[in-house]
């Protein structure tokens, strides 16, 4: 009897020590994909490392856009922090570092799929603004700041991949973009040209043509489809039984938010410019 208890206790202890699942999902991760967030494709076998580097990246970028205000529990400004002793300040910083992920702005959600990660975002973080800020930086500098992440797709919300649920989510997301502009006493519709970008993974219930047809029917009247040069892109991400929706601009300009391609494009352009300068110098030296 005692050996059985000891064996059970050992297994329990081993389970408590385990920090990650086989797909790289941490044990504190959400059980279900939920809310606004970012889909991330990464190198197979590097899911755990990708989650870690994306936390660091997102926290850094979010701190620039939405600085965390230091507020005391009484709701007063923490400007009095300078009166704290060094020991108290260290304790305060340590307590912030130990704050569980559930209280922070980003949380990894379990996908149970290699190469696929979903990190949800809490207000005030806007996943679209977050990702655009990052890809703009990669496009300008060529520095991806990540090793294993490839493509990032922000979604402003998620729902069940059923037509009724998808309609409600699309109407909610579309409302903030496809709206009438008011000038003086009159409201005027600003016609937008859009394209639907659909990606379906591990889902067979709804067909691609049916999804595109329904999403297009949910766009308010007066706006036009433009396959070649759209102003905005409606991103529809369907993964298993979950659907995510967002609206972005410059999707093709930023290589469909593939940071690896953006970084390679920048570096290739730099090499080409360097070669051109070398050729010009050689021509000048010969003349």
From TrEMBL:
Question: Sorted alphabetically, which keywords does the UniProt record give?
Answer: RNA-binding
- Sample GO molecular function, one term: RNA binding
One Pfam match, by short name?
Answer: THUMP
Per its UniProt record, what Gene3D superfamilies does this chain match?
A: THUMP superfamily
Q: Name one GO biological process term.
A: tRNA modification
**For the THUMP domain, which residue ranges apply?**
137-249
Q: Which SUPFAM superfamilies match?
A: THUMP domain-like
Q: Map out region (Disordered) in residue numbers.
A: 1-21
Q: Which CDD domains match?
A: THUMP_THUMPD1_like
Q: What is this protein called?
A: THUMP domain-containing protein
Q: Which organism is it from?
A: Coprinellus micaceus (Glistening ink-cap mushroom)
Lineage here is: Eukaryota, Fungi, Dikarya, Basidiomycota, Agaricomycotina
